[in-house]
């Protein structure tokens, strides 16, 4: 099993969870059930994915609610505000219907709206009320994270950002390390596109593992977390099985050499 990180709020975060972005609502219950059966300790959902009712139903049906961490995210349309965040949370919590929401995150900072600090204040309130255990953010840059800290005194425990060997985000990771923030990668496999990289293929062959396992092991060895996605039960299981091998310093350096700035998802500054 991948390691369990400790967040700056004292709560655990399993290094590997599985993501529900673009999982069709009609498929979600089966996908979540397969993930739980494969042993995933963390399920990364969000209101925008439009599958929270199905996610909650699968978690309840599993009978293992207490062993699982479930994350949700506030989207913030048409407005981002303190009150809208509380209202959006009520909807997600009702759809999930799993009691306390383990992790609740701001999906995008949308800096042009200049409202993310108010959203963060609402998140802090939800945590104080015990409706959410851990609050976090996604797609924040260092300056935006610093504003949360300066204006509320609450450092985000998690920042979920696009990260993979093409775009490792080393500078942001360094800021995170200095401030006790866990880097959690979305599209950790570059939406699957990294799996065709010849350097990684060669490394995986030498180590006797899959390319996805090499990339996920890289995330873990950087001290971060990741939420890979797969609709296939065997691949889901394999992506969680990262223990039997290690990347040497040389391997880590070769992977670092793959950085080329390629994004496989939206640039946060285009999300307003
Ligand atoms: P599939 O669902 O057919 O397994 P990311 O997590 O970066 O968004 O990447 C998800 C993509 O990577 C999906 O297209 C998924 O396809 C593919 N993928 C995930 N795990 C593996 C794996 N172990 N081997 C091959 N492809 C994988």
TrEMBL record:
Keywords: NADP, Oxidoreductase
InterPro entries per UniProt: AKR (IPR020471), Aldo/ket_reductase_CS (IPR018170), NAD(P)_OxRdtase_dom_sf (IPR036812), NADP_OxRdtase_dom (IPR023210)
Residues with site note (Lowers pKa of active site Tyr): 73
Entry keyword annotation includes Cell membrane: no
Pfam families membership: Aldo_ket_red
SUPFAM superfamilies: NAD(P)-linked oxidoreductase
Active site: 49 (proton donor)
Residue ranges annotated for the NADP-dependent oxidoreductase domain, each copy included: 18-258
Record-stated family: Belongs to the aldo/keto reductase family.
Record PANTHER family: 2,5-DIKETO-D-GLUCONIC ACID REDUCTASE, NADP-DEPENDENT OXIDOREDUCTASE DOMAIN-CONTAINING PROTEIN
Descriptive protein name: Aldo/keto reductase
Taxonomic classification: Bacteria, Bacillati, Actinomycetota, Actinomycetes, Nakamurellales
